[in-house]
């Protein structure tokens, strides 16, 4: 009768190896699914490096020709004031005047004795933020020259920008990623695991906002990165 001992031994060894391989595969599969998803924050306060300052004044009258002459003279006075204070000509733009004919306004209940209401705007756009801020506080000097700068119109607010994001972006991403890793390491330690490699990372969007309502010339730059790390025993 033929002996099956050798075949049985080989078969048993095969089943044993198969079990080992399956177990290793399951362990590897389990390790692959173990991960932690964390966020890292980086914030920085920076001074604005660009300012847009609209100087607005009103003119009233009944004679367009006289108004034109008056506006031309007023514009020249403002330009002289700005240049005297250190603003370059290429940083100044003179807008076309906005003329409202009170009598042409069909539904107007305005009882003003003046037919024409003209809004003139001269805009300063400059990187000399501190200088412009100083001039804004000194614009009352124009009263001595016969010009009253008006405010309160939401269309003509002073605005500040930060345009040098690319200079600080690499450092902020590095800081945010570092903060994310610290959070992931804490999680791994608490779960009695070890932190593995990065599986996926999302830089996130940068946001630039005023630090607060009182200091719009100071900007807060913010970025949140999302990083997924693998975990292992």
Would you mind describing this structure in some detail?
- The chain has 233 residues and is α+β, with helices and mostly antiparallel strands.
- The protein has 2 domains: 33-47 and 164-232, Translation Initiation Factor IF3, CATH 3.30.110.170; 50-161, Protein of unknown function (DUF541), domain 2 (Alpha-Beta Plaits, 2-Layer Sandwich), CATH 3.30.70.
- It is 36% helix and 32% strand.
- It has 4 helices and 9 strands.
- The protein has helices spanning 5-33, 64-84, 129-137, 165-190, and strands at 35-47, 50-61, 92-94, 98-101, 116-126, 159-161, 194-202, 206-210, 218-232.
- The strands form 2 sheets. Strands 2, 3, 4, 5 and 6 form a 5-stranded antiparallel beta sheet that branches. Strands 1, 7, 8 and 9 form a 4-stranded antiparallel beta sheet that branches.
- A hairpin with a 7-residue loop joins strand 8 (206-210) and strand 9 (218-232).
- It is elongated.
- The two termini are 52 Å apart.
- The model is unreliable at 17-22 (pLDDT under 50).
What can be said about this structure in brief?
With 233 residues, the protein is α+β, with helices and mostly antiparallel strands. It has four helices and nine strands, in the order αββαβββαβαβββ. The model is unreliable at 17-22 (pLDDT under 50).
- β content, as a range? 25-35%
- Give the overall shape, derived from the CA principal axes: elongated
Low-confidence stretches: 17-22
* Superfamily (CATH H level) name of the largest domain: Protein of unknown function (DUF541), domain 2
Name the CATH architecture of the largest domain: 2-Layer Sandwich
